[in-house]
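User: Hi! I have a protein structure encoded as tokens and I'd like to know what sequence might fold into it. I'm fairly new to this, so please keep things simple.
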């Protein structure tokens, strides 16, 4: 049997630091449009990509984002993105009393544009993308083990550098 190496598709290769962040608009848990361009030129943006609402690790992480919301939001705009629907986000937000925005990428367009798509599972990777005030990708961290939480202190330190 012969194995052929195939170059990874753009949708599965994380976006590079220094490149312009792809513009997007996604609905949040309240069906309100959230636009990246609303924050460019004003403040840094932290995008927390996560696989699924209601899963154990994602539940822990989003609880942490809410508990530390003031620590994250003092340095930038915070938004969490998954492939779940606005209805799932709304139910989850209400059940967990989440303070941050949950963006619904049901068509996976943003996940793919940022190179964070996992085709085998049809979800996003667990990743953090920080965007500076000029709209450029300043920091990207993809968790190698999707079942492990990200390092919140590392994210806060990197976000603080952009403020």
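Assistant: Happy to help. Inverse folding works backwards from shape to sequence: for each of the 163 positions I chose a residue that suits the local structure. Here it is:
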């Amino acid at each position: 049997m012969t194995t052929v190496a195939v170059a990874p598709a753009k949708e599965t290769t994380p976006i590079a630091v220094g490149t312009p962040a792809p513009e997007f608009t996604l609905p949040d848990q309240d069906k309100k449009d959230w636009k990246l361009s609303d924050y460019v030129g004003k403040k840094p943006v932290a995008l927390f990509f996560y696989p699924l609402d209601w899963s154990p690790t994602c539940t822990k992480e989003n609880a942490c984002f809410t508990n530390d919301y003031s620590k994250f939001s003092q340095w930038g705009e915070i938004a969490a993105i998954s492939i779940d629907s606005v209805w799932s986000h709304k139910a989850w937000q209400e059940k967990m009393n989440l303070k941050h925005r949950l963006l619904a990428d049901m068509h996976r367009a943003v996940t793919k544009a940022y190179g964070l798509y996992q085709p085998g599972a049809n979800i996003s990777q667990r990743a953090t993308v920080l965007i500076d005030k000029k709209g450029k990708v300043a920091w990207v961290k993809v968790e190698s083990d999707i079942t492990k939480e990200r390092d919140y202190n590392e994210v806060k330190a990197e976000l603080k550098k952009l403020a």
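A useful reference point when you look it over: The first strand starts at residue 25 and ends at 27. Feel free to ask if any position seems puzzling.
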